[in-house]
Structure formats: structure tokens, C-alpha cells
Amino acid sequence: MKKLLFSITFLAISQLFFAQEGNVINVKIPKAEKYIFTPVIDIEASNVKSQGYTGTCWSFSTSSFIESEIYKNIGKKIDISEMYTVRNTYPIKAWDYVMRQGKTQFDEGGLAHDVIHSLQNYGIVPESAFSGLVNGETKYNHSKIVPALQKVLDAYIKNDKNSKHPNWRKEVDSILNVTIGKTPEKFMYDGVYYSPKTFLKMTHINPNDYVTLTSFLQQPFYTKFILNIPDNFANGSFYNLPLNELVSAVDMALKNGYTLAIDCDVSEKTFSQKYGVAVEPKNLSDNEKAMTYIVTEKEISSEFRQQEFENYNTTDDHLMQIVGMVKDQHHNEYYKIKNSWGTTGDRIGNGGFVYMSKAYFKLKTISVLVNKKGLNKTVKEELKI
Question: Structure pTM?
Fold first, then answer.
């Protein structure tokens, strides 16, 4: 029988074994490997919370980010009130909606820079001073707040002569006081009386330290621009970097001990809190398998990222906090993401944390908020920050 010569390439993640029986060659397919994660970077972060039935992930994620910043500044773990920021931001959204005569989005959403704007203007308070829960509530539910507010605002915009809400500012404030609570002017914390602004001063948080980074092709790189996404009602500015430099900036910040707030798309089937992973398989047929097994992922180019953004496959639907990095047994790196959906999936996943591959990050991330002190000198010079 004619001899056959096989050239076998051994890959790092699998081996092929050939056995000849007559004229039939049997190939033993290696078993798929389950993820085995080990920590690379783990930065101090507060416990996972639940945003409940609200669209306030922007406040939960960025407040958690601020908590990590406070710990880095003064070594104290302080539970910051997410709802204090939410309560102060609704009137700003209402003003924007009225001035645009109702021709803009009005909902519960927001972005990381809205928290920075709020603390700059109104300070911050601990959870113990303002929980945002009223009338004995134990879980957040804002499903009725926006409809109630919008009814008042629309009546004013339409100049309804029969409207009972001629002074929309007072009506908005009244609704928020009833549904979220009246914000405190003074409160006690660790035996000391503070106002929201003196409490902010105590934490050594400087609002001017924070910048938002992104990567899109519609604007020149290394410039600042307003990103036109629905939740950017405040017209916040974003610094534009090439995609690989955005990834490098995130890596550098983490290595320097700084967390980041991330705005991204989590609507993909391969983003799973249940399993605690977010990946971007090369083959759609691997989507389910990728929840528990390592699979080959897509190579993400700037052009493909842009295409997915412009056709609405990538949207700004959720914000979280990047608190570290892990790697699998083949040294693939993943960002450790703290979510705000509670600890659902604890038995299978990572107790409210999601390990996001760099392929998923490249494709599905809208932006990151970071302390500019965590960036390297070159990036800061390129962006003039």
C-alpha cells in the first residue's frame, strides 16, 4: 500500500491525532476547553448592587467608579448615593426637553459624564443620607416617573389652555420629591456634619480630572467632538483615539491602578451575566458554545466597528465599571466588568461581574470614562489634556 506522508502542525490549543485503518483515516477531535480564568489586575471596588427596575445604569456604574476613585484618594470605602445624582439630573433633562420643544429623547438614560456634571454642580452624598427609596420601598422602580414627568412637560410644550401644569419646574420638583425624595442640604457622616459640596471636598474628587475616550471614524483622531447618541442630552465631549490606542489606554489605566466607566452594547446574545462572559465568536454557530468554552473570536477592525455603529447593531444601551483584567489558560485577556444587575447568575457566572474579551470590547464599546492621571504621557500630549 502506498505510504502517506502527513505534515502535522501542532497548535497551542489543540492536537490532531491520526490513525490509519485500511484506506480510512480517523481524526480524533480534541475536546473543547472550558474557561479557566486567573486574575491579572484586580482594583478595589465596592460590592455589586442592583439598579432595580430603572434605566439608571449610568449613575450606578459611574458612582461605583467614583467610589473606587475615593478609595484611591483617601483610603476610605464610601457607599455613594446613586439616586442623589439621578434626582438632580431629571430637572436638567426636563429643561433640555422643554427647550427642544419635545423633539428629543426624554427617558431614564444618561452617560458617565452626567454624574461628573452633577457632582461638580451639586456635590455628592453617601447612600445613608439619601437612598432614593420612599414609602418603605426596598427596590428601585422608576417605571412611572418618566410618564408622569413627560405628561407635565408635554402639556407645557403644547401650551394646553386646560393644562393644570403651567409651572412645569415646580410640578417636576414635586413629582421627584414624592417618587425619589427631597435631597438633603446637610447630613451627618462618621460623626461630622457635611453639605453635599463639603462632602465632595472631603473625598478629594476633582471633576476636572475625568475625560471620556472613544474611537470612531467620522471625526479626526486626537480631536474632541460631541458624539451624537440618544443619551448624550448634555452634549458631552469625547476624545477620539485610534481603536488600538483606545485599548492601550484602557490597559495602561488599569496597570496604573485606575478603574474606568464603560458605555457599551450588551444586547448581543454573547454578552451573558448568567455565565459571566462577553465574547465575539468568529462563527455564529459558536455563540452558545462560547458561553462556557474558548472559541475563536473575530478580528475587529476600525472599519467594521464603524459599520456596526452606523447600522445600529452597536448602541449605547448600558454602562458598567471596568475594575480589572483576567486571562484564560491560553493568555487571552479579558476585562473584569462590574455590572449593576445584582448577583444574578452567581451559581454559574461570576457573581455580578462579567469577563469581557478584547474583541467584544473593540466592537461593542461606545466610550470609557477615565481619570486622565491614569493615562500615559503620550496619549495626554496627543489629546492636549
Answer: 0.90
